[in-house]
């Protein structure tokens, strides 16, 4: 079993003042973003230090209220906006950016240290460690020689014109690499480097251009998401209105996970990203672009940890079929399902959570007990009494399953934190181990040991009853009606929208979740976190409410939610950072 | 931040000075000629605790149980300080004695965030401190500090090594990259090495200045991130200046298996990382290494089918005595990796003893008993006397901060200190000395 789950919970919570066992859904603790002192952000994860992260990290909410609800005694400030901490390109963003910038399709960032941030649901890098810097150097040194200079920086044969050609190249390439025009000082220093290349390093013109590319791919203008450049931000009231190139970049890294295209650069240059209408038009255009598919995959896979299938160990004596091809089929299934619902289907949250079809190939078919599958995954109907949406699909059940069976705690916790934005208290000082399956009894009977300890009870009465709903699925998502020779009991109750509701199994539970206000609200919050690459704060409340309205008016479909997030105050404005403006 | 650094470096790296300014870079250092061999520190850390009844000797003799069986050949060179605890963590956590997973950042730093379940080192770790001292003493090494890791579950996690407060030293986990770092320039013509050095120096110069300009407009927190980035650029610069290759009969460049698209299996990967560490020591490419095996979150996502253990490491640790048979199998296997390293060093004869005699390998864990995640006691083990500094056997302590062990390690490595880490835990452990 998984006290690991418990400790991981604790590791993600770090609620300094959360004594006792009070869990909560949706909020109650107001983050003070940007105020974390160096070394107190509490981040873990490779390369993370959490400096500048919101001071209430964790899987749970940090804003003062739930999107879609307003506390009359504390109405949200429509002019407020949350912070925009400096952050690096994630592995995915780096790979996509060098693809769009230079046609590099080798995904060089796959060699970088992990961008998993154990304090945040979505991928996010911390500081540049020496190893990070070394890997970026290596990638840049590998990419630069492959560039076709005759196409990227054409120049005549007249040697005296080469300096002018290099400057011209810097202006165009710099705009795209840094996602904003270079300022004079940058051009001057880059031209000085070019001259060092031509003299000290005895490079020819093409070599000098490649030296510039190698350097710029490691420069802060490329590595960091901060497209304002060395320009003082101007206050609009108490917040900063993002500059046009910053908006362009924010849109593209949110909706495409990559750099802006020419249309976005043109819009930024023409000042056509200043109003919500401008931004909305761009967002709609971008959602129709093929590049939006990668964004949708990124969100859903990270939201529910669906991309962790390959990283989960299973007991080969219990699940001998869990090999690389089955892992790949599970991954393909969730990607195909997400893409289908988001782009061919209605895109409704309820469809993601209750659809009784999926994309199954012949490797995966035995897991679902279906026939008629072929080598290539195709859309198949599943038994609606057994399957309903993402939470009953193989990837989710495998990732949240134990090595040798189900795992009510892990599954319950995932639903509680990821779908309900619930925040669990830290674990008690000591948790009794759960008996191994060989000691007999169903999983549910073995896990009920949690109820015997006072504090554990408070924590586990939240997680376990939700998790028991999934007792009909084993460690790799196969449906079962018995567990360890005894009948499965998947019944339970969950409090949604303030009302306790009974369910008989996971199918009923997911249907309850699919129409719950708590879940819809949390879904908005999670998308906002994904878009902002940080936890939500009190200053984001009006923005999240607006996004919830867009979502609600569109029958809770995801596209309109994304438009709502993109046009929100906190997406286009930011609060100034401490020490930023003297 | 010293803004002059990059300007000065720019001058040094200046026009056409490559060969002249780096006269020693590819001269082979005949370390065999030196009278005294250097001392080395290697730390090996993993999580999930130990099985105390098997691990700890009962009497004055360092009896070897199942867990430590692979190290039996080195018994006469081993020292176990029993009863040290991570007081600094317990104090910060309000005496939560069962937060074992949250001690990785304090193990080698002797610091703790002032909160429960801290995840960040609040100062440099002892490996960083000692390697910095070695560099300052004028010794140039290809890798002044090697931070290595074997973590097969892609989950990240905290390292034991910290450059400074809040600044992680992310471990290298790829043996091919490690090999290149240690040996690639050995295969390169000298002129090519010089050219590459000057090129990289030019780029790093630019990046240093660019980062400083970039940080001007940022807020305080973001500036801190850029300072960490700058420190990393400086590390790359330092590595650029360091010596390349060595001489000596025991220094033999290893051969790696051909790289394929399939990831190496864990036993192969583990052995390679320790083999490369051993050769880095034998070739004097480094004198300080840290190994982080599995993460501080319990190694969730790791099982050991090659040992017949198909269950999850962390889950087994939580099973207490019921899990001991499997747990001891895993732990013994991990100690066998340490034994592989110790053996290679002990097979290397140097003036006055073996390379192991001139080294100290310290193993550590982020908790004591795995089921309870107890941190009121920490299972440290020293192998090698560090040039005759440490004695062998068992020394017992009670309620003694592990900071004193860290301070003692500094002294063993000829970096004199009277304390290490957070204030309030001063002192050394003279009982450990030979």
Give an account of the 3D structure.
Among the domains of chain A are: 3-88 and 233-256 and 518-574, no CATH class; 91-223, no CATH class. By secondary structure, chain A is mostly helical. Chain A contains 24 helices and eleven strands. Residues 1-22, 27-64 and 450-455 of chain A have low confidence and may be disordered. Chain B has a single domain, classed as Alkaline Phosphatase, subunit A (3-Layer(aba) Sandwich). Chain B has helices at residues 4-12, 18-21, 52-55, 87-92, 104-107, 126-136, 175-183, 190-215, 220-241, 266-282, 313-318, 324-346, 403-412, and strands spanning 40-46, 78-85, 146-150, 162-164, 167-168, 288-293, 349-350, 353-354, 359-365, 381-383, 393-401. At the A-B interface, helix 1, helix 3, helix 6 and helix 7 of A face strand 5, helix 8, helix 9 and helix 11 of B.
Topology:
The complex is a heterodimer of chains A (582) and B (434).
Chain A: H1 3-13, E1 24-25, H2 91-102, H3 130-143, H4 149-152, H5 162-177, H6 184-199, H7 205-216, H8 220-223, E2 235-236, E3 239-241, H9 244-255, H10 262-269, H11 276-287, H12 292-303, H13 324-344, H14 349-354, E4 357-360, H15 365-368, E5 378-381, H16 394-399, H17 408-419, E6 422-423, H18 443-447, H19 454-468, E7 482-483, E8 486-487, E9 492-496, E10 499-503, H20 506-514, H21 517-532, H22 541-553, H23 558-566, H24 569-572, E11 573-574
Chain B: H1 4-12, H2 18-21, E1 40-46, H3 52-55, E2 78-85, H4 87-92, H5 104-107, H6 126-136, E3 146-150, E4 162-164, E5 167-168, H7 175-183, H8 190-215, H9 220-241, H10 266-282, E6 288-293, H11 313-318, H12 324-346, E7 349-350, E8 353-354, E9 359-365, E10 381-383, E11 393-401, H13 403-412
Parallel strand pairs in B: 1-6, 1-9, 2-11, 3-6
Antiparallel strand pairs in B: 2-10, 4-5, 7-8, 9-10
């Amino acid at each position: 079993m998984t006290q690991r789950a418990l400790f991981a919970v604790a590791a993600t919570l770090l609620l300094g003042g959360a004594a006792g066992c009070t869990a909560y859904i949706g909020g109650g603790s107001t983050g003070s973003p940007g105020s974390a002192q160096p070394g107190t952000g509490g981040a873990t994860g490779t390369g993370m230090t959490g400096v500048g992260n919101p001071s209430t990290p964790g899987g749970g909410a940090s804003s003062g209220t739930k999107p879609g609800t307003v506390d009359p005694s504390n109405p949200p400030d429509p002019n407020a906006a949350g912070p925009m901490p400096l952050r690096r390109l994630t592995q995915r963003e780096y790979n996509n950016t060098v693809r769009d910038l230079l046609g590099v399709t080798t995904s060089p960032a796959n060699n970088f240290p992990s961008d998993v941030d154990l304090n945040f649901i979505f991928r996010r890098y911390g500081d540049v460690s020496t190893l990070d810097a070394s890997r970026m150097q290596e990638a840049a040194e590998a990419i630069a020689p492959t560039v076709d200079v005759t196409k990227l920086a054409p120049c005549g044969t007249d040697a005296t014109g080469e300096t002018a050609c290099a400057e011209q190249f810097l202006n165009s390439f710099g705009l795209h690499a840094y996602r904003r025009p270079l300022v004079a000082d940058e051009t001057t220093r880059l031209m000085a480097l070019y001259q060092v290349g031509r003299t000290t390093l005895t490079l020819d013109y093409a070599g000098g251009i490649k030296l510039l590319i190698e350097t710029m791919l490691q420069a802060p203008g490329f590595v960091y998401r901060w497209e304002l450049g060395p320009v003082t931000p101007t206050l609009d009231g108490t917040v900063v209105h993002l500059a046009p190139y910053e908006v362009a970049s924010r849109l593209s890294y949110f909706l495409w996970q990559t750099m802006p295209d020419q249309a976005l650069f043109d819009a930024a240059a023409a000042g056509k990203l200043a109003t919500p209408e401008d931004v909305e038009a761009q967002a709609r255009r971008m959602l129709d672009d093929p590049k939006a598919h990668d964004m949708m995959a990124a969100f859903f896979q990270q939201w529910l940890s669906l991309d962790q299938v390959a990283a989960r160990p299973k007991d080969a004596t219990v699940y001998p079929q869990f090999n690389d091809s089955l892992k790949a089929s599970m991954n393909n299934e969730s990607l195909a399902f997400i893409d289908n619902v988001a782009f061919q289907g209605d895109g409704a949250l309820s469809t993601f959570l209750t659809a009784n079809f999926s994309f199954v190939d012949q490797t995966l078919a035995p897991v679902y007990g279906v026939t008629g599958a072929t080598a290539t995954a195709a859309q198949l109907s599943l038994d609606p009494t057994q399957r309903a949406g993402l939470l009953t699909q193989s990837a989710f059940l495998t990732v949240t399953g134990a090595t040798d069976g189900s795992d009510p705690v892990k599954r319950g916790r995932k639903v509680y934190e990821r779908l309900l934005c619930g925040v669990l208290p830290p674990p008690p000082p000591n948790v009794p181990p759960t008996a191994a399956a060989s000691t007999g009894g169903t999983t549910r009977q073995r896990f009920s040991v949690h109820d015997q300890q006072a504090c554990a009870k408070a924590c586990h009465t939240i997680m376990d009853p939700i998790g028991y709903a999934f007792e009909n699925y084993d460690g790799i998502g196969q449906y079962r009606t018995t567990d360890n020779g005894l009948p499965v009991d998947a019944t339970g109750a969950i409090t949604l929208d303030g009302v306790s509701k009974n369910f008989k199994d996971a199918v009923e539970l997911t249907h309850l979740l699919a129409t719950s206000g708590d879940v819809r609200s949390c879904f908005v919050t999670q998308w906002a976190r994904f878009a902002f690459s940080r936890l939500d704060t009190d200053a984001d409340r009006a923005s999240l409410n607006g996004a919830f309205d867009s979502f609600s008016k569109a029958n809770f479909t995801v596209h309109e939610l994304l438009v709502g997030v993109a046009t929100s105050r906190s997406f286009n404005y930011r609060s100034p950072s401490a020490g930023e403006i003297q | 931040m010293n803004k002059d650094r990059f300007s000065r470096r720019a001058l040094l790296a200046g026009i056409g000075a490559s060969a002249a300014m780096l006269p020693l870079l590819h001269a082979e250092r005949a370390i065999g000629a030196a009278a005294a061999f250097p001392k080395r520190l290697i730390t090996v850390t993993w999580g999930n605790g130990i099985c105390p009844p098997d691990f700890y000797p009962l009497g004055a003799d360092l009896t070897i149980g199942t867990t430590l069986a692979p190290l039996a050949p080195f018994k006469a060179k081993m020292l176990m300080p029993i009863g040290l605890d991570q007081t600094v963590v317990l104090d910060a956590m309000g005496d939560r004695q069962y937060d074992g997973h949250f001690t990785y950042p304090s193990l080698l730093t002797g610091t703790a965030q002032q909160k429960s379940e801290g995840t960040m080192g609040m100062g440099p770790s002892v490996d960083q401190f000692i390697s910095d001292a070695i560099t300052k003493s004028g010794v140039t090494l290809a890798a002044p500090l090697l931070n290595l890791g074997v973590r097969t579950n892609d989950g990240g996690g905290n390292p034991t090594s910290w450059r400074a407060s809040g600044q992680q030293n992310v471990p290298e986990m790829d043996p091919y990259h490690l090999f290149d770092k240690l040996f690639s320039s050995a295969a390169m013509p000298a002129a090519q090495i010089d050219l590459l050095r000057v090129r990289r120096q030019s780029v790093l110069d630019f990046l240093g200045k660019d980062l400083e300009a970039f940080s001007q407009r940022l807020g305080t927190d973001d500036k801190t991130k850029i300072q960490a980035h700058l420190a990393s650029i400086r590390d790359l610069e330092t590595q650029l200046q360091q010596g390349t290759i060595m001489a000596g009969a025991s220094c033999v460049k290893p051969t790696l298996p051909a790289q394929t698209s399939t990831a190496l299996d864990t036993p192969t990967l583990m052995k390679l990382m320790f083999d490369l560490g051993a050769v880095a020591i034998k070739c004097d490419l480094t004198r300080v290494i840290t190994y982080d095996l599995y993460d501080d979150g319990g190694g969730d996502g790791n099982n050991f089918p090659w040992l017949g253990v198909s269950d999850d490491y962390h889950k087994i640790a939580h099973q207490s005595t019921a899990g001991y048979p499997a747990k001891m199998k895993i732990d013994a296997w991990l100690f066998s990796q340490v034994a592989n390293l110790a053996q290679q060093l002990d097979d290397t004869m140097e003036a006055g003893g073996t390379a192991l005699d001139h080294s100290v390998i310290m193993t550590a864990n982020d908790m004591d008993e795995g089921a309870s995640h107890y941190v009121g006691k920490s299972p440290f083990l020293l192998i090698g006397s560090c040039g005759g500094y440490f004695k062998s056997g068992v020394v017992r302590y009670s309620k003694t901060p592990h900071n004193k062990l860290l301070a003692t390690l500094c002294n063993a490595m000829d970096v004199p200190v009277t304390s290490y880490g957070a204030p309030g835990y001063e002192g050394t452990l003279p009982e450990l000395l030979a």
